[in-house]
Amino acid sequence: MSEAEARVYPLVGLDISASLATALSTRKPRIACRAFKDLNLLILRLVNAPTIAFLKESLGVMSPRIRDMCLSILRNVPDLNRENAFRSHHGTDSWFRPVARLLHQSLCETFGQYLGTDRPTSKLEELARIICINTSRPFSDDESDTEKWIGQFSEENLRWESLGLLSVFWNFAPRSDGAVAWSKCSAEFDVGFLISRENLRLCLELCKEFSAANSIMLCMSQRCTVVNSMFAGDAHLLGWRLHAEAMSLVTFLGLHAVEDTDQHQGSLASEIKKRQFSYLYTMDMVVVAFTGRPPLISRRFASTPLPLDISDEDLFSKEGFAKAVERLDEKGWNTDGIIHISSRIRARTLIAIIREELFEIALSHKPTASIDVLLYVNRSEAMMLRFTFIINIDTVNSEPENYKRSLISLPGYNTIH
Predict the structure, then answer these.
(1) C-alpha separations of 271 from 10, 139, 207, 215, 268 in Å
(2) Distance between CA atoms of 209 and 163, rounded to whole angstroms?
(3) In this predicted model, what pLDDT tens digit does every residue of 159-199 receive, in sequence order?
(4) Rg (the chain; Cα; Å)
(5) Which residue from 193, 137, 191 is spatially nearest to 161, judged by alpha carbons?
(6) Contact (Cβ atoms closer than 8 angstroms) between residue 219 and residue 141
(7) At what angle do helices 215-232 and 187-210 cross, to 10 degrees?
(8) pLDDT tens digits, residue range 321-343?
């Protein structure tokens, strides 16, 4: 890697013993930063970012490309005072909705003066500099304290990852006629969808400029894949390229190798990693089924266990998390008779594991499969149908008894993950 391309990334699984001070003293400080023209910012970022006030004095002029990207994002932010600026988003990937709601509230309280109806360019540039500085700071995916974890990218620590995450939940176009929900055929949906897609793309690009990659950036990458698949079509190269980027980020962050510990030793950090890996692994198997291309990841090279079957509210509550874990059975399923988003993630992942076995037979160059594999696939067929019930059931109005009966009657339930 050339000096002009030198960046700082966390190297998962590697022991870095060289001293940063020694490295800087033995080389001329000519490292170029693509985002800023001023060398001082990059050196300060390497050493460990100090206070925002000090960084402002050392901050140079943003390049026109970065400036335009920042201003475009901030001008697209909806009126935060509008009643329906934040909307609900349902799906197996919406487990971070409670976090997004907190981010929305903290943005209104901390930077609301920058994002009113009147947004002078000078004020937006000032806010953009603050967010760029915050994004360049280290982000810990191993932080298990909920308040500290959220505090890394909320309030005065607002990052481009934060705005990217919020772009999934914001209503960028006001609803007409007091509509309760957008219709996918409406003009509001079209406008909001295009703005959300653009904001996600720009936020992700800025994160690549400043951030060393983290779980929030992975959330954005995954959403970019889904949104662009809706925009360009599932078979388009754009969707395939973005999906490959998200999967490479999964292995870069080490989410495929999360340690399998006792469920009572679980934490917020480990559960977030498990949920993200399970979702992206499932998505990869869906892409394989659609395209017939080889998978980008395999369970043969992954040791990450299934996420625990707990609610989103309990996941982000210290006391609630501990109580929820106590109500799980030995396989990690909840015994409350409630289907959570995590229940669907688990069910989809188990189905994806079965699918992977089928894909190995269908896509392999070998003419035949072993008897053991065929027997496993035969046993798994009924299990797959049962888990389809969990996936398709209404998670809001689900019947507890139906859920309990579904789990109890699962063939091989005592031996599955």
Answers:
(1) 20, 17, 23, 12, 5
(2) 15
(3) 999 999 999 888 876 654 444 444 556 677 778 889 999 99
(4) 23
(5) 137
(6) no
(7) 140
(8) 999 999 999 889 999 888 888 98
